[in-house]
Specification:
With 264 residues, the chain is an all-alpha fold. The chain is built from 12 helices and no strands.
């Protein structure tokens, strides 16, 4: 694993984790372009490090919200914070179910077909385009909304479907306020990422050699810094209803991925 490749893939992960263009899809495309099939497949530790970096950047951006949530939950009352945490719990169920019982089937979609990623990016583009045309509201995420958004998050485990794009688009199409939709989308994934990291660590499959420390550190820093930037930028983009720009981007990259596959 070379340092430059680690930094490039770290930046890709950090930016695309929050921007609605699919981090998994872009990592697959990045590996294909760089001719590196080891990152994310054979090197589980690298994948874990990148996801930890982006999760940490989310915690930093939403640190005040998270502290308020924890304070509210610790009051052991059915207050607004506890209700919000409950909704996040509901939203996690579909993804947890897929992760626990269909992990091997899901992994078959990775590293298998750039064309598949291309088609999924086109679907992401359609979702973003529709969400951008939705009217502004002041509606909060309901318990039913949380369950539907959770299904979108589970579907977005496929490479090429943007998790943030799918969940924010679904929220907005359900009539949820765009700012609240972005906040819920970013906070709902934090427990899942840390849970997945814990599962990988406890599995005993993580291993690394001493010569990987520098590339791993470089990838972590790149993903963390780019994640801070992308998360802040994405909140502003959703508020300004500029998701259509990313829809066009997904259309362009999706078609390029399909054409690349056909030519090779």
């Amino acid at each position: 694993m070379e340092i430059i490749k680690a930094i490039i893939l770290g930046i890709i992960q950090g930016l695309t984790e929050f921007l609605p263009v699919s981090s998994s899809g872009h990592l697959e495309l990045g590996k294909a372009i760089l001719g590196d099939t080891s990152v994310g497949e054979e090197s589980l530790i690298f994948t874990v490090v990148l996801h930890f970096a982006t999760a940490l950047s989310t915690v930093v951006i939403f640190r005040k919200d998270i502290i308020e949530l924890l304070k509210g939950i610790l009051q052991f009352k059915w207050n607004e914070e506890t209700q919000f945490a409950f909704k996040i719990g509901i939203s996690m169920i579909p993804a947890v179910f897929i992760g626990l019982f269909f992990e091997e089937e899901l992994e078959q979609f990775f590293g298998s077909s750039i064309m598949f990623v291309g088609f999924m990016l086109l679907i992401t583009g359609v979702l973003l385009f529709l969400a951008d045309k939705a009217k502004n509201t002041v509606k909060k995420v309901s318990i039913l909304n949380a369950g539907i958004i959770g299904v979108s998050q589970a579907i977005a485990m496929l490479p090429g479907i943007s998790r943030s794009g799918a969940t924010i688009a679904t929220s907005v199409l359900l009539g949820v306020d765009k700012t609240k939709a972005a906040r819920f989308s970013f906070l709902m994934v934090v427990p899942l990422i840390f849970g997945k990291i814990a599962k990988d660590v406890l599995s005993g499959d993580l291993s690394y050699e001493s010569n990987q420390i520098v590339p791993l550190s470089a990838g972590f820093i790149a993903a963390f810094v780019s994640g801070l930037f992308a998360c802040t930028w994405m909140i502003s983009i959703v508020k300004k209803s500029k998701l259509s720009y990313f829809a066009y981007y997904c259309f362009a990259v999706g078609f390029l991925a399909i054409i690349y596959t056909l030519l090779n």
